[in-house]
Automatic annotation (TrEMBL):
It comes from Reticunassa festiva. GO terms for molecular function: NADH dehydrogenase (ubiquinone) activity; NADH dehydrogenase activity. Its EC number is 7.1.1.2. This is NADH-ubiquinone oxidoreductase chain 1. Belongs to the complex I subunit 1 family. Its main location: membrane. Keywords: Membrane, Mitochondrion, NAD, Transmembrane, Transmembrane helix, Ubiquinone.
């Protein structure tokens, strides 16, 4: 029991460090995409910049808006942060202390709860900008969860298991992305929309909503929302690599180094997309999932179900 607790705490510390330095990677990546330098004043090449940002946020005075509903207002960032960390329990490693046989169901349950953190943050702030941002984020997240759940059925049908570890091991000889390239592309776009990232960042549309659902947050509250967002980006990159670009976990190199390089590639793809595309129109965003991804996923799913039943028969 003590080993499990120590392992979990150590894993969470590593996740927080990864999130901190991923923000540095994003700022450096966007700066070079835009032909500038990025953070380079704090320490050597700006490497301690995430630590300086964390120290600044955690030492600032906590804002207490006069009209806010205090209990849900302070609870919302903590709730979002806990949900983001819970998803990391599904990390498929030989050194994990927990094994989720029904990992995909756990993932769907926890990711579905993310909506409530955004809802609480927007509503409890008692600000029109925050409420509008949270409503847009909720509509976007719920819409894309439908197509995400359908896309998740493809690996389930092909592998016949709800376990992420078994899905990863089943791709020892061929990646699932080679069997269904359009589905893997739809999954990645859905991941970008689910994490409210550019070009789908309507929850934080600065031109209309100042800063969206988190406008009334500062100091530690903003830091927790920020950490939750970037932890979700990294965990969705992890699941993208695992579901469509997995491999055998019996080989140490493949299990640790190569798999992490795949995750890093997908995480950088989030930055690359942000630096390459302007923000979508909201009606086009919703039409993309309801008129594009949903019919396409249902059609592909019907085809895969027919083929799998024919093969097994």
């Amino acid at each position: 029991m003590y080993i499990s607790i120590i392992s979990t705490v150590f894993a969470y510390i590593c996740i927080l460090l990864a999130v901190a330095f991923f923000t540095l990677l994003e700022r450096k990546g966007l700066s070079y995409i835009q032909i500038r330098k990025g953070p380079n004043k704090v320490g050597f090449m700006g490497l301690p910049q995430p630590l300086a940002d964390a120290a600044k946020l955690l030492t600032k005075e906590i804002a207490k808006p006069t009209m806010a509903n205090y209990s849900p207002y302070f609870l919302a960032p903590i709730f979002s942060f806990i949900l983001a960390l819970l998803l990391w329990q599904l990390y498929p490693s030989l050194y994990s202390c927990s094994y989720f046989k029904w990992g995909i169901l756990f993932f769907l349950c926890v990711s579905g709860m993310n909506v409530y953190g955004t809802l609480l943050a927007g509503w409890a702030s008692n600000s029109k900008y925050a409420l509008l941002g949270s409503l847009r984020a909720i509509a976007q997240t719920i819409s894309y969860e439908v197509s995400m759940a359908l896309i998740l059925l493809f690996p389930l049908f092909l592998v016949g298991s709800f376990s992420f570890i078994e899905i990863k091991e089943s791709q020892e000889y061929i990646w699932l992305s080679f069997l269904m390239i359009p589905v893997s592309l739809m999954w990645f776009v859905t991941c970008i929309a689910e994490t409210n990232r550019a070009p789908f960042d309507f929850a934080e549309g600065e031109s209309e909503l100042v800063s969206g659902f988190n406008i009334e947050y500062g100091a530690a509250g903003f830091a927790l929302i920020f950490l939750a967002e970037y932890a979700n980006i990294l965990v969705m990159s992890l699941f993208s690599a695992l579901l469509f670009f997995g491999g055998s976990s019996m080989i140490l190199f493949e299990s640790d180094v190569a798999f992490m390089l795949k995750v890093l590639f997908f995480a950088f793809a989030f930055i690359w997309v942000r630096g390459s595309y302007p923000r979508f129109r909201y009606d086009l965003l919703m039409g993309l999932t309801w008129k594009g991804f949903l019919p396409a996923a249902l059609s592909f799913l019907l085809l895969v179900a027919m083929l799998s039943s024919y093969i097994f028969y």
